[in-house]
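Re-running Mitochondrial carrier to confirm reproducibility after the cluster update. Everything else is unchanged from the original entry.
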Amino acid sequence: MLAGGIGGSTGDVLMHSLDTVKTRQQGAPNTLKYATMTDAYLTIFREEGFRRGLYSGITPAFLGSLPGTIIFFGTYEYSKRHLLDMGCPSHIAYLTGGLVGDLFASIIYVPSEVLKTRLQLQGRYNNPFFKSGYNYRGTIDATRTIIKTEGPAALFYGYKATIMRDLPFSALQFAFYEQFQKWAKQWCDSRDIGLSLEIATGAMAGGLAGTITCPLDVVKTRIQTQVRTGPTTPISSAATTNPAPLQRRPFTTLVPPHPPASSRPISTSSPSTTSPPKSGPLKFNTSSILEGLKLLYKTEGIQGWFRGVGPRAVWTSVQSGTMLVMYQYLLKQMERWDESRVVEL
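Result of re-run:
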């Protein structure tokens, strides 16, 4: 658990800037300055800076990553080893361990994912370069504002979508990783495959799983970054002194697409029946991942399913490589420490 927590949170922090680029591409797909990964990265850095731009949302990301990965790895290893001891086929044990681990960890990381994604889409406070529909001062202000204007349940917006993305991602990632590790050990004829192959197996597993699950990630981002209650102007806890009573709208239907009547900055505020703007994505009014995938395909085609696939593939590759290499290294170090203590005793 300790090795997994350190490895996972380190990988998440290192690659957070690419995750921000991915979020901008998915949340603002028709914004030309974010069209490519390189353009988006350089534009955000030039306009908003490193800490408040590319690393916006890093606080909730870290607060969710550390305990989330601790729970995940503890559950994953326990489930995997228990299933293997019962005689379960190895690939089934790896898939199941990844699914169960992510299911338990989701209670922690889903609220942090909502906060992180919205702050990433917003960028800096009072951002003059991009209109996201949000204007949070920081993590605490975002939490208070979301609870006040949308209710505590809003911190779990997209829970099903996040689960539907992360369960198959974790299952595929660890199934690929364990298989790549097995092949590498057979090729080297040793349990010690060396640092380069450790990094390669982790990176390939993460990149492949991230690419396959990209459509689920796009739907998750769209659901979590759209406010379903409150005014259509950017949200801020200090925006109004006497806000109008909020009416919660059901979100079991989809806003039908119409030809856009005008071009205006993206707004991720409450869905309405007006025509979607050219500069922003079609608004979702559903919590269903399947309905979201259908709507994306109908309005944006296959391209809509794979918005941000470049930064997501790079991010999951490097993040997974970092996380899994550190995980294996720390496990081996802890085993050596335990053996040395036993010898001393």
